[in-house]
Every structure is written in C-alpha cells, then in structure tokens.
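Example A, followed by Example B.
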Amino acid sequence: MTEVRSLCVLCGSREGSDPAFRETATRLGRLMAQRNVRLIYGGGSIGLMGVIADAVLAAGGEAVGVIPEFLIRYEVGHRRLTELVTTDSMHDRKRQMFDMADGFVVLPGGLGTLDETFEIITWKQIRLHSAPIVVLDVGGYWAPLRALVDAVVDAEFAHPTVRDLFSIVSRPEDVFAALAAAPEPSEEVFSSHL
C-alpha cells in the first residue's frame, strides 16, 4: 500500500450531541498535522468539518476543502484553508475528494456522511480503488454500520469479505496503524456476486 500523505475525512456539518465527537475530531486533526498528512474534507467551517480543519491548521498542517458552489452559502465555506476547491455538484465534490486522497477516515455525521461512506466503500468493492478506509467509532456511534453490514452478509447479499473493506477503531491514536494494516480487497468481494 502507498504511504498516506492526504487523508480524506468524512464527517458531519454539525457537531452532534456528544462532546466526545468534537474532542475526537480535534485530536485526529492534531495527529494528522504532526504526521504531515494533508486533510481533504468537505470544505465547511461548521460542525465536525470545521473542528477538524481548525485543528489541522492550528497545529501547522494543510487543510484542503472541497465544496459545491451552492453549499458555500449554507455550510459557510471555510475561508482560512490552505485551499478551498469549489465544484458544480455533490457528485463532483465526492469525486474530487476521492481523487485527492490516499486514504479515508469516517467520523460521526449525518446522511451526507453516510452517503459518502457507502459510496467510498462501494467503490472499493468494485475495484475503483484500494485505498484504506477507517471508521472512527466514537462512543459506539458506528455500531449500527457494522450491524448493517453483518445483516447484508447474513442475508447473502454480499460476500463475507466485504467486512474487510473498512476497519473500525475507537481512538484517533489507532487510525494510522489501521490505515497501514488495511488489507487489499479480496477477489471474492468483487467476483462472488457476478
């Protein structure tokens, strides 16, 4: 696997109800800056998006936001980033973030985060990439994701190796080891349903 120099962090445009969400985003941002890993994210200045961008920048790191033009008004596009890229659509945003990243980390978030997470996992399943994906499960927030994937496997809509398309950790300090240890997607994850 290639070295992770740019990490796309998928997360909410709100901070959520648990203060641990904010604390985790801040710690991850600091760790990224300490490791000289560039942040690629959704470009907002609010919610967990703003928290992680501010943490990266405050620690001397680089933060690149990617945001659709129409969302700048609503998500208050971050104006102090290393770079703010605007796109024409949500789809273009996801594609641009994907193209810029060597790996992915998922923090708590809402429907947009779910959409981005499922798309990046699906792209890995169908071999559009082999980049590592780590879900940072703060306080059990992502336990339903693991249960859903298990249900999909149990119902035989996916090969059991889909479970290996992403890793789940509970602390920011474990993210980089999980990125490094991520296995390549197996042949069966793609071919078993063809």
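Example B, a separate protein, is given below in the same form.
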Amino acid sequence: MPAPASSSKYVFWGLNGLLGAIFIVQLAEPGLSTVWDGAMIALAAVASVAALGRRLPLQNVLPAALITAGIGGSAHALSGIPDFSLPFGPIIFNAAAGPEIFNTVPWTVPLLWVIAIFNGRGVARLILRPWRKVKNYGLWLIGLTGVLAMAFDLALEPFAWHVKHFWLWRPTRLVVTWQGTNLLNFLGWAGVALLIMMLATPLLIRKQPGHASAPDVHPLVVWLGALALFAAGSARIGEGWPVAMDAAIALATTIFAVRGMKW
C-alpha cells in the first residue's frame, strides 16, 4: 500500500537528516557532552537498520539486529570481566561510554556492533557485486564482512580510547599493539563478526525472486562518515598514524565499492 511505503520513506530520510546534522555538529564542536555521542551512535544504528529494512522485511531485520547487538555486547561484557578478558583482551569501560546494561557493558557498545556489521556487510555487498551469482558468494560475503568489521575497529580504537575515553585497555603480555590496543582485540572482532554473520545471514537473505536491485550506497556513506569522524578526532589530538590508517581504509573500501557498483 502506498501510504505505509511513503511513511517509511519519510522516516528513513528523517533519521538520516538528524544523523547528518549531529555529524556536522560533532565535527564543529568535538567537546560536546557525551549525550551527543550517544545520540549519534543510536541514530547511526537505527538508520542502519532502517536502510536494510527498505529491501528486507522488518521481521527479518530486527532479529538480525538483536543477534548482532546481543552477541557483540555479550562478547565485550565477557572481556570486561577481570581475570577472563576474552575474546578481546582486558578492557575497562569508562562513564563516557554511557550507562551500563546490568553493570556489565555500556549501552552504546551493542549499537556500535550494529553499525559495524550492518554497514560493513553493505560495503562488502558493493565490493562483491560482480560475483553475486558465484556459487560461494554467501561465504565470501561473510568472510569479507568479518575483515571489514576488524578494519572498522582498527579505525575506532584510537578514537574511542584516546579521543572520547570510552574505555581503556589494560596491559597484556603481547608486546605489539596498535595505539595501545592489543592485537587480540582485532582478532576477536573478526571472530565475533564471523559468528554474528553465520547466525544472522539466513535472516538477511532476500527470499522473493526478482530482478537484481540497484546498488545501495547508504552503508558506504555511513561507513565513510564514521571513518571521517574518527580521523578528525585523532587529528585534533595530533595522532597522525590513526589518521593515515583511517584514510587508507576509506580509500581502499571506496575504490573497491565503486568498482563493484559499476557492474
């Protein structure tokens, strides 16, 4: 029916309009209260769900979002337990990340997983578009989403720790780190992302037959916006290596995504 479709379209663009406005405010005034950080994370997560809901039923998208948030948040909660610290390593959450769910993990962390997985998967679909009819396309999509989730965290960690002070990492026996973050964390992100994708993918497969849909650029826009925000924050505190990493990830994903969109 046209009315609900029209309403959902207005909701979608309204969410993205608010997200864009807060994004601009955050770039212009980085010292705003943590309420603004929470609002941006929440809007980005909801907008990501709404974007996927344009081509899939919400009864599929919402459970996939719950699986993503539940597994990602639970994994971080386990890492926050002293003397356990798996799968990411020993992490301590700060008040800046927001109130904690059941005194375990800040409410923003599960939403960060929704942002990373939903948009990482969307970018992966663009990159793999030339191979969408290949037999093992689904496995490649799951694997590439895991790689992109790890790349998202590579960009996120310096911003979340050194710029926003959402959390901090306790020392481990691992000598090699990235901006103070142990390498186990990034392997953990890839592993948890793969687990999420294996469980959520059946919900995210379009069951109705039909012509191939046009490329959806929304995940790429959100992805690049997040990287731009991370880079801007690191640049303000004089951290050059994170800025270079963010730029490299943004450039590589953009080149491959645009290439895939042309098919």
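On Example B: The longest strand covers residues 91-93.
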